[in-house]
Amino acid sequence: MTHFDPRSPEFIAHPYDVYARLRRTSPVVFHEPTGQWLVSRHQDVSALLRDRRLGRTYTHRFSHQEFGQRPPDPAHEPFHTLNDNGLLDLEAPDHTRIRRLVAKAFTPRMVEALRPTVAALADELVSGLLREGGGDLISAVAEPLPVAVIAEMLGVPVADRGLLRPWSAAITGMFELDPTPETARRAVAASVEFSDYLRALIRERRSAPGDDLISALIAAQEEGDRLSEQEMVSTCVLLLNAGHEATVNTTGNGWWALLRDPAQLALLRSDVDRHLPTAIEELMRFDTPLQMFGRWVLEDIELHGVRIPRGAELALLFGSANRDPERFAEPERLDVTRTDNPHITFGAGIHFCLGAPLARLELTESYGALLRRAPGLALVREPTWQPGYVIRGLNELLVTT
What we know:
Blueprint: H1 9-13, H2 16-25, E1 28-31, E2 36-39, H3 42-49, E3 54-55, H4 77-84, H5 94-105, H6 108-113, H7 115-131, E4 134-136, H8 137-142, H9 144-154, H10 164-172, H11 181-207, H12 213-219, E5 221-222, E6 225-226, H13 229-259, H14 262-270, H15 272-286, E7 292-297, E8 301-303, E9 306-308, E10 313-317, H16 318-321, H17 356-373, E11 378-379, E12 398-400
Parallel strand pairs: 2-10
Antiparallel strand pairs: 1-2, 3-7, 4-12, 5-6, 7-10, 8-9, 11-12
């Protein structure tokens, strides 16, 4: 591939050569097919994530007409109600208020208290893979773990946990560029079903609180302010969607990278306790699960001498920024001992991922269990990539143990 083409399977499979060319020759450039300004350098992406002249939304300041954008399809309203009340797509003052309240419930202590549960789940899933002599690492380990963890956090009964993954997959399909009508239909249906399910759980917890996250969200308050029911529903869905997709794809993409680099895998296995913390950060940098993050331009800005007007959309290329040689030594090389590693996989600024500690915990326990208990893990065949570019991951990763 010689140009940016997020709809091309070849580009999705290996976008990094194109990113390198963009960083060298066109660090900010308008991409006509998607109507976005591509920003590819680490320094620029990092700064723009913190720039309050940009926003994840514009509706807190402008109408769709004032901003030169078409209103969303009324048929998609359930998806937008769900998505637009979550932290990811809110700006101050709503974002500030909701994040402060959610942080009172979703605390570092709550995450750390989950460590024994996460470790036991990871061990159980790896045991299953070992019993079978191998299989698809993604469906056997990577996918079930974060779903089980968030279900445990929310207090979702075991019998209902199979519902969560299909809902998450359907809803996150709308985050891709130009989703199809069928993708939108599935996302709307999942938004309605998931919201209804969570509202019923919230009603149960109001009458009989427990030690789960929903009960904590109901109880969270500051100066008399509380989360609305819709804000609680949107928060729970965001925690599942964002945490699940990032953890699954960091696991799949990361193991694919390790299995292609036997020397680095051997180094990691030689001292798991010592190298695992830096390896987790490096795997998130090396093949970033979220390749692109959009931002709306709320006020005219200038970047590298290029004026970008209000109403434009920026495509911040996380995958490119995380391989920028101006910030990372030998960025195309996987280095599980890398310590100077300011990757932006979790974002930055006010939208820095609230679930980052939970994602790191899940990845640490998952990788740790596989490294310690499956020393003979080997690839069966080269994997293929899912068609999505924004959230980028493998279809499967077949291994033997």
